[in-house]
Specification:
216 residues; alpha+beta; 5-stranded mixed β-sheet; 7 helices; 46% helix; globular
Length: 216
């Protein structure tokens, strides 16, 4: 049976899937990974390099995982759980457990509350008033993350070890310098982010993505 294929970019939330799959030990065995340019809507690497990404995913977004049977998954709550279910090294609780439902809840919070809010700051066409509003809402989400979710100073977002929720949250937080959000206003969030960034396998995944990138 052929492998599933992940399409991602190195800085978008698709990168969280690459990091999770790298940690899970499934890249090249259960999951192939190819880069896409979501602005030009082109596949950049692999056997379909140069072809129209819309032909793979009509929404044109990443992450996208195409399963061996042709099923297309393209939202993090689904793609990251597929990676968790196929992991060699665990990156999430087993399906059907209370811990797994908690993981799913946290993934949904990252997607709808944090990513869904801060993502608006990437839009260069919004007015100063709208940007101020979204920035304030973004800090509200970071305050909740700091004061509630990470209140005990935990190293990982869910449970006692690295999960797909950490890869997703880490990437969303990594956007802060580009959208002018100051993580130092929320020390526990900043400490969490720095801790995940220093994990050896996270560094390895970033290096692997850089190596796989086509020449500029």
């Amino acid at each position: 049976m052929s492998n599933a294929t992940l399409y991602y970019t190195t800085t978008s939330c698709g990168a969280s899937n690459f990091i999770a799959a790298h940690r899970a030990g499934i890249l090249g065995s259960k999951l192939d990974a190819q880069q896409a340019d979501i602005r030009a809507h082109k596949i950049l690497t692999g056997p379909k390099a140069g072809s129209d990404f819309y032909a793979v995913n009509p929404k044109g977004n990443v992450p996208t995982i195409v399963l061996a049977d042709g099923t297309v998954l393209n939202e993090n709550a689904a793609t990251l759980q597929w990676i968790a279910d196929n992991a060699v090294t665990p990156v999430g609780a087993k399906s059907g457990t209370s811990e797994r439902y908690l993981l799913q809840s946290k993934l949904s919070w990252i997607s709808s509350e944090l990513h869904g809010t801060v993502g608006g700051l990437f839009n260069p066409t919004i007015s100063a008033e709208v940007r101020e509003y979204i920035t304030a809402k973004s800090y509200d989400k970071l305050k909740f993350l700091n004061d509630v979710e990470l209140a005990d100073g935990r190293k990982f977002f869910v449970g006692s070890g690295f999960t797909v929720a950490d890869s997703y949250l880490y990437i969303v937080l990594s956007w802060s310098p580009y959208i002018k959000l100051d993580l130092s206003k929320h020390p526990k969030v900043e400490a969490y982010f720095k801790s995940i960034a220093e994990l050896p396998f996270v560094k390895e995944a970033h290096a692997a993505m850089a190596k796989a990138s086509p020449p500029a």
